[in-house]
Structure formats: structure tokens, C-alpha cells
Amino acid sequence: MRRPSAWHLVLAPLALLFALPLLWLLVSSVMSNAEINRFPPALIPSKVDLGGYRYVIGNALFPQWFLNSLIVSAVAVTANLVLGSLGGYAFARIRFAGSKVVLGMMLATMVIPFQLTMIPTFLVMKQLGLIDTLGALIVPALVTPLAVFLFRQFFVSLPRELEEAAWIDGCGRLRILWSIVLPLARPALSTVAVLTFLSTWNDLTWPLIAINSETNYTLQLGLTTFQGQHHTQWAAVMAGNVITVLPVLLGFLLAQKAFIRSLAATGIKG
Amino acid sequence: MASVVGTFTLDPRAQAAAKRRRRSEGATGWAFVSPSVLLILGLSVVPVLWSLLLSFQVNDLVSPSEWVGLANYRALMQDPAFGSAVQHTAIYAALYVPLSVVGGLAIAVALDRKIRLIGLYRTLVFVPFVVSAAAQGVLFSFVLDPEFGVANSLLHKVGLPAQGFFSNPDQALYLLVAISLWSGTGFCVIVYLAGLQGVSADLVEAARIDGAGRFGILRHVVVPTLTPVTVFLLLFQTINALQVFDLVFVTTKGGPLGSTTVIVYFIWEKAFKTFTAGYSAAAAYALAVALLVIGIGLQISRRRAAR
């Protein structure tokens, strides 16, 4: 048998260092309040206490926040896939007047920092009557230049011959996109879905600005407020935190390859 | 495939039909891109210009605004609160950016080998990156809670005095850097790991034959090859660092004693807490110009490095 590499002595503690805070999150979410509020607090709970989770799920607002986040993220992901692939396909394959200029302008908007647009975006949403509704969170997230760009790059890399045959058979562009191109575009679809989900689910700044009523909070905003209101019920706060992190964490563990490829792709394209 | 195209181009009827369809292509193209174009340009170009107008006005987001010229910018330059926000952001960025990039490279090199459990190690290093800033903030508010937090409890165990952490103005900003390193280094690791796959094995082998040690190879072969990746990461991490907000909002709200008020927190506070939107827009423009200058500077240095 081969001797285990000495690198384990470096890598195992390093990995543990990164994992420890999340491990503590999980452990403290199943502690009883008595054990948490003792000084010094127990490091390992004597038994698993689901009181924190019961409290959070029984809370009048927490399930609503979860639902709100889910709605916003689901609509944003779907819209980015639909609008991003439509736009990306046209920019990659269809010749039309002004396409280069418009594409260039759209890509240029990627460098605009959010702080520069947030006040006017707030004013626009107010004019549209969307402030303090989920609509205010959804409309600006419907399509990002990154989604259009990633789809365009992917479609450019596909061989044209696949489409030529269908084109000559009289298929329209929409039909070609739907039945020939998109079935081949799984990597692009998953990349855009992952990046959109990550950014909408995790966002705090914009919901903080656009939403006032507690019933319309997203999970990130709700969790932050919840912590302020339940300062001594740390087990419940940590249970809420686990519920906030879990969808992203599960998604990451299930689709790790897609996540890492997507994020590395944003790096390499820059 | 090509032959199919070939046979059809011989058919004049099909050729005519194709020509007709090609003419309607422009309309199709615009139909496909217009939802994206309207949304993206409408929600970026319009706000950017609107922000510029706002920065020359006094505006409380409700009543009609009043034109004041450059007064907001002049006031900004003399505002000690803005000055210290710039200073806090600079300290945060000066620590976070180099540490995350250099740390990311070191960890990526360590993780770039085929041994058992390597997949698990990579996952664990990267996983904090997908955790939202809000969740990080809530978690560390608990870990670092002076009374109930596990950090002070561990210090107590080893006989060290309890710390104030986020309630101590001398510690809060550095703790924010540490938390950001915990969650943000993984991104650099992933990008460097992808970059390391592009390092030529032949070149490494040649250097080894020439007698280069492990460190020599790293310094003279690996690091130079990764220069474009490094420049990208420096740019990306700097932009992120100068825009830090969520973590500050959740943990310290700019305190204690304003010790963690960063630029974006300042901008947010001026716009949506004290309702001085014109002043806030001026600060946002100042930040945007700084980001632009850094971006252009790094692009130029990347071009030079590529040559």
C-alpha cells in the first residue's frame, strides 16, 4: 500500500479551518437555549434540541420570507434563461442593423457599480408603483448583461452546420433555438441558472432599499431583522440562518461541478 | 452536414425562399434582443445619467429638487465623515485584496495535486463563498458575541482575557477583513486552480531538469504564467472590496463609533436614512470614478504583462 501523502498534514487543518464556522452554525442551531446562554457556552450540545427550528418554522413571518425569496429567485432564473438565450442567440447568429453597437453598450453596462444606479432605480420603481412589492426585486433582475453574454459566447462556439439543415428545411429562428440549439446548451443554461440563483437568493442591499413591509421581506433581509429582534435566542437565529443558507449549500453540493465551472468562467472571461 | 447545404443551394426555389427569409431576419433579431436591451439599458444608462443630475441637486427623494451645481462635491471633499469612510475602505481593501489573492494562490498550489480526499478539501475551502454576506454576518455576530460567543469562550479556556470584538472600535474593521477572507479566498482558489491547469507540464519538467527546486519552479514558471489570472483577481477583488456593504450592515452598522463606516455604507446612509440623495449620488460618483481609474490602470498593466 502507498504511504499517504504528507500534504494531508497541511491540507486537513486548512480545510477544517474553513469548515469550522459552518460546522458551528449547524451545531449551535440544535442547542437548547439553556446550553447556549451559559458562560462559557457548551461546545458540544448534550442532546439535539430542535426548539430553534420549531420556533422559526412556527414564526408567522419566516415561512413567508422563504416563499418570497423562492418566488424572486425562481422568476429571475427563468427570465434570465429565456431572455438571455433569446438575446444571446440573436447576437451570435442573426445579422441585423445595430447589433454590434447594442451588444457593446450592453457589455459596457457591466462595469457600472450598483451604488451609481441604486437611487434612480429606486425612483423608477417608485414611479412604477413597485416599491415595497416583490415586483421591485424581480424587474431589475429579469435579465443581466452577463446572462446574454454567456449565452452568446456559447452559441458562437457551436458549429453552424447543425442549424443550417433546419434553416433550409424552413424552420423559423425560434424553432431552431428551441429544438436544436437549446438542447445542446446545457452547460450555458446551468451556468446562467447558477449565477442568477446565487446573486438573487443572496442579495441583501437591494431588498433593504426596495422593501419596507415585513411581509414582503426576502429571507436575507428577514434573517437580519430576526437577529435584531431575537438577540438572546441564538439557537432560533442560527436555525433561521441554516434555513437561509441551506438552499444554496444543497444546490452547491448537488451541482458542484456546474457551480465551480460557472464561477471559474466568470473569472476567466474577465 | 455540409453536403446537405450544398444540395439545397442548387435548388432555386429554396434559394429564393431563403433570400426572402433573410430579409425578415432583421426584425427577428430585434424582436429577440429588445426585451434584454430595453431592460438592461433602461435600468443602467438612464439611472447613470439621472444620478449625475442628482449629484448637482439637493433632493430628499420626495419633494422637488433644487439645483446647487458643484456644492455637493465641494461639501463631500470637506466632510470628515466621508474622509474617514474612504480611509476605512482603503484599509479594508489594502488588507483584503493582497491577502485573498496571495492566500488563494498558495492554497491553490497546495490543492493542485492528486491525492485522496482532495475533492473534499477543495469543497470545504470553497464552500464559504456561496454563503450570503447576511448569513455570514449573523453567524459571526453570534460567534463573536462578547457574552455568549464561542470565541470568547475559547479564549477563556486558554486563559486569555475576553475581547470586545465588534464592540471594540480598534478590532471591528479587522474582524470584517478576516470574515471576508474566510469567505472570499475560496473564489481566488477556484480561479487559480483553473489557471494552474494551463501551466505547461513541459515547461515545469524542463525547469526541473535544469535543476530548479519546487520554489524556483513556482517563482519562475508558475507565477509568470498565471499573471493574467492574477491581474483579473486583483481587479475583481478590489472592486468587491471597495463596494463592501452587506457584511457591514449586518454586523456593525458602521459602528462602533463609526469605525467601520465604509464608502458604500456612507452612500446608503445618506440616500436612504438621512434622505440627502443628491449628496449620496455625488459620493457614488466619486467612488465610480475611483473604480474606473483602478480598472483602466489594471487593464493597461495587463496589456503590458501580455506583451
TrEMBL record, chain A:
Its membrane topology: Multi-pass membrane protein
Gene Ontology cellular component list: plasma membrane
PROSITE patterns attached to this UniProt entry: ABC_TM1 (PS50928)
Organism whose genome encodes this protein: Kribbella sandramycini
Protein's UniProt keywords contain Repeat: no
Domain of life of the native organism: Bacteria
A Pfam family annotated for this UniProt entry: BPD_transp_1
Record's subcellular location: Cell membrane
Official protein name in the record: Carbohydrate ABC transporter permease
The keyword Repeat is annotated on this UniProt entry: no
From TrEMBL, chain B:
Domain (ABC transmembrane type-1): residue spans on this chain: 86-300
Transmembrane domains' residue ranges: 29-53, 90-111, 123-144, 172-196, 217-239, 277-298
Top-level taxon: Bacteria
InterPro entries: ABC_transporter_permease, MetI-like, MetI-like_sf
One record GO biological process: transmembrane transport
PROSITE patterns cross-referenced by the UniProt entry: ABC_TM1
Record-level GO cellular component terms: plasma membrane
Family matches, as SUPFAM superfamilies: MetI-like
Membrane topology: Multi-pass membrane protein
Cellular location(s): Cell membrane
Keyword Membrane found: yes
Pfam families given in the database record: BPD_transp_1
Keywords attached to this entry: Cell membrane, Membrane, Sugar transport, Transmembrane, Transmembrane helix, Transport
Main localisation: membrane
Family: Belongs to the binding-protein-dependent transport system permease family.
Name of the protein in its database record: Multiple sugar transport system permease protein
Organism: Kribbella sandramycini
